[in-house]
Specification:
single chain, mainly alpha, 5 helices, elongated
Length: 106
């Protein structure tokens, strides 16, 4: 049990892994805009107008995720912070994608 605690509190993550997380976050931030575009294709102008608030939410979330990823890249943080950040980013992508698909098909 002490080994798990030490691993979670460790701050010695390799630089290439931090860069990989940063690049993954960049790609994940493109996903909400892509899914909104794909869901809006039949009537692009009308659907994008209906989903304008969700595009704003996606933009703000992208800025927040990029800021946190940049902070993680440039500073030493414990591994549990990095793990929780990845979980939060993935859950946002999942809920945003489902919500946009459900609202655009309604």
């Amino acid at each position: 049990m002490n080994k798990i605690k030490e691993e979670l509190l460790a701050t010695d993550l390799a630089d290439w892994r931090k860069k990989g997380i940063f690049i993954a976050v960049i790609f994940l931030n493109v996903f909400p805009f892509f899914i909104t575009y794909k869901a809006s294709i039949p009537d692009l102008e009308a659907t994008l107008w209906q989903l304008r608030h969700f595009v704003g939410i996606a933009a703000m979330q992208a800025i927040a995720q990029m800021s946190l990823a940049w902070y993680i890249l440039k500073n030493k943080v414990p591994n549990y912070v990095i793990g929780s950040f990845i979980v939060i980013a993935m859950f946002f992508q999942l809920t945003y994608g489902m919500l946009v698909i459900l609202l655009s098909s309604a």
